[in-house]
Amino acid sequence: MPLHVFGLILVSVAISAVAQIVLKYGMSSQEVQRSIAGGGLDAALGVASNVYVWLGFGLYGLGAILWLGVLAKVDVGQAYPFVGLGFLLTMFFGVVILGEQFNLIRLLGTLLVLSGVILVAKG
Questions:
Q1: What is the distance between the terminal CA atoms of the chain, rounded to a whole angstrom?
Q2: Are 103 and 122 spatial neighbours (Cβ–Cβ below 8 Å)?
Q3: CA gap 59, 82 in Å, rounded
Q4: Within 13 Å of residue 102, how many CA atoms lie on the same side as its CB?
Q5: Taking the chain (123 residues) in consecutive chunks of 10 residues, what is each chunk's mean pLDDT?
Q6: How far apart are CA 94 and CA 16, in angstroms?
Q7: How far apart are CA 75 and CA 94, in angstroms?
Q8: Most buried pick, 48, 94, 116, 118, via CB within 10 A?
Q9: Would you call 111 exposed, middle or buried from its count of C-beta atoms within 10 A (0-12, 13-18, 19+)?
Q10: Rg of the chain's alpha carbons, rounded to an integer?
Q11: CA torsion 22→43→51→66, rounded to 10°?
Q12: In angstroms, rounded to a whole number, what is the distance separating the alpha carbons of residues 90 and 101?
C-alpha cells in the first residue's frame, strides 16, 4: 500500500474518532440533556440546535470523503481493517478528553483489536 494512501486512511479514521468525541460532547451538554428530558419536538430541536452535534456531523462527512479517496485506490478488504484503529482512538480520546473509565477488560479488548489490525496490515 502506498504511503500516501496509508496516511489518508489514518487521517480519515482519526477524523471519524474525533467526530465521535465531538458528538458525545454535544449530546452531553446541559442544554441537550434538558431538551431530551422534555421529549418530542423539544428533544429534536435541542439536538438540532447544538453546534457540537453539527460539527460532529461535519467531521464525519469529511472523514467519509477522505475514505472515498482511500477506496478509490485500494481494495476494501485491505483498507477496512484499519477502521479498527478508530475504536482505539475513540476509546483513548474518551478516556483522555471526556474522562471516561478505563479498566482491564477494555484494555484487553483494545489489545485484541490492535492485534487484529496489525495482523491484517502485515497480511
A1: 11
A2: no
A3: 18
A4: 15
A5: 90 96 95 91 92 97 96 88 85 92 88 81 70
A6: 13
A7: 30
A8: 94
A9: exposed
A10: 17
A11: 50
A12: 13
Contact 26, 51 (CB under 8 A): yes
Q: Which three cell numbers stand for residue 7?
A: 496516511
Q: Give me the half-sphere count of Cα atoms (radius 13 Å) on the Cβ side of residue 88.
A: 17
Task: Round to whole Å and give the CA distance between 37 and 41.
Answer: 11
90-95 contacts, C-beta under 8 A, 24 or more apart: 90/17, 90/20, 90/21, 93/17, 93/18, 93/20, 93/21, 94/20, 94/21, 94/24
Residue found under cell 428533544:
43
C-alpha separations of 99 from 9, 75, 92, 95, 96 in Å: 27, 37, 10, 5, 6
Residue type, 11: V
Number of Cβ within 10 Å of residue 3's Cβ equals 7
